[in-house]
Write a structure and sequence with these properties.
globular, 25% strand, alpha/beta
Length: 433
């Protein structure tokens, strides 16, 4: 088989698109001197990438080196635009058919790609994978930061991994401008056959003990109840955990079904809801819902949407919901507090301390949970999304609907989203499969 070097880049997702093109062209010129079979292509969608991979396979070619140059979220490369973003979900990455050659390697020249995505990609695609821990910028030198030529469209340009203003403040910016910033080496992850349980199974007992009564999530429950239908409806709770949410709203619904990937949490859920005949639970594997089309009036995802495979599960949600059904999402995301949010931050802090006084036992159990090493390991394999990732995704799939911020911390906040109905999404061409 012929071996190729495949260089892919984006230009449309966010600013810097033309610079990504220059980086890709610089890399292609340097690679061609050693291997004349270099493919360099802009890709603005998941479909464009899968088409390229299929063509390579059909042409009996294998990838010796894969390079992606562009933006990324915590779960990897981003495509499309911020008005309608696309990202391969973990499920899609696992099932992506990439014709790698033996001893191939993959390089992701994008922000934070080493934190979660690169090791995940290496583990599931069975190739040595490289990524950056810090953010990336553009440099005219690859070893030390030099401001790129602002007018030339032909001079060399490189993606440059380094600490930046977001991570190290203005001191890092000053070091860059003074030419004192050295490039962060790409971090390598070798192919391993490690079996990882990324569910809540290892912390299920502690989690169930902490959230036996979900009313401790006061702001979230109050918002949710305001957005429930005034008539009793059939509800699907995705990522139901220990079943505390369905127990809390059991008098407001006609039937409730909870699904989760964690068998241990579902054991707790069944015990907690044992007397309730209209509440049931099922384990799911992957983004497939084992229910008939038009089965539910309401789907809820509370503090679990960030873990889901967004496009695949959204297609399933659209299928199982009735035409006038709706989706409610409540979740935690990361984002630094802004100056114009200080009043909301103060209000959230006051509510937090009042809640601590009302529920001392909950905070004792919560401390035990979050300080447990198995909790830290679980979070390592389930990173929290950034606010803009969830905001852009939900608001693009449901035009004219906006997220709400219901409480806020210094580096995170709780978002809430009401789709109103599924009619908006019916005409959107979801990019999976």
């Amino acid at each position: 088989m012929n071996k190729v070097i495949l260089i892919l880049y984006t230009t449309q997702y966010r600013k810097g698109g033309q610079k990504f093109r220059r980086v890709a062209e610089t890399m292609a010129a340097e690679k061609t001197s050693a291997n004349p079979d270099v493919i360099c292509s802009a890709v603005e969608s998941k479909a464009a990438i899968t088409a390229i991979l299929k063509n390579l396979k059909d042409d009996n070619k294998q990838i010796d080196e894969l390079h992606f140059i562009g933006h990324s979220g915590m779960y990897g490369p981003m495509f499309g635009t911020t008005a309608f973003p696309e990202q391969f979900s973990p499920y899609e990455i696992r099932h992506l058919d990439i014709p790698f050659a033996p001893k191939a390697s993959a390089y992701f020249h994008c922000c934070r790609s080493a934190r979660w995505f690169a090791p995940y990609f290496s583990r599931h695609q069975k190739v040595k994978t490289f990524g950056y821990h810090w953010y990336t910028t553009f440099s005219s030198r690859r070893d030390r930061y030099r401001f790129p030529n602002p007018v030339s469209n032909t001079s060399s340009m490189y993606c440059f991994g380094c600490p930046g203003k977001k991570s190290h403040g203005y001191i890092a910016t000053l070091k860059k401008l003074l030419g004192l910033m050295k490039a962060e080496p790409l971090k390598a992850f070798n192919e391993v056959d490690e079996v990882i349980d990324s569910t809540y199974n290892q912390v299920a007992d502690l989690y169930a003990q902490t959230f036996t009564d979900i009313k401790v999530r006061r702001d979230e429950i109050n918002w949710l109840k305001k957005h429930l239908s005034t008539t009793k409806v059939k509800v699907l709770d995705i990522g139901c955990g220990n079943g505390a949410l369905l127990k809390e709203i059991q008098g407001l619904i006609s039937e409730g079904v909870g699904v989760d990937v964690s068998s241990n949490l579902l054991t707790h859920a069944k015990v907690l809801n044992e007397p309730l005949k209209h509440i049931s639970f099922q384990q799911i594997q992957g983004p497939t819902l084992p229910f008939e089309t038009d089965s539910f009036d309401l789907v809820i995802s509370m503090l679990s949407f960030r873990y889901l495979d967004w496009d695949p599960i959204m297609l399933e949600i659209e299928r199982v919901l009735k035409q006038d059904g709706k989706l409610l999402v409540i979740d935690m995301v990361t984002a630094p507090v802004k100056w114009n949010e200080m009043i909301l931050l103060l209000k959230s802090k006051v509510n937090h301390y009042l809640n601590r006084m009302r529920n001392p036992l909950f905070y004792k159990h919560l401390k035990t949970l979050v300080e447990h090493p198995k909790w830290a390991k679980m979070l390592h394999h389930n990173p929290i999304r950034s606010q803009h990732e969830m905001k852009w995704y939900l608001e693009s799939r449901f035009p004219k609907r906006k997220i709400e911020i219901i409480n806020i911390g210094m580096h995170s906040r709780i978002l809430a989203f009401d789709s109103i109905d599924m009619k908006n999404i019916k005409n959107i061409n979801l990019s999976y499969p």
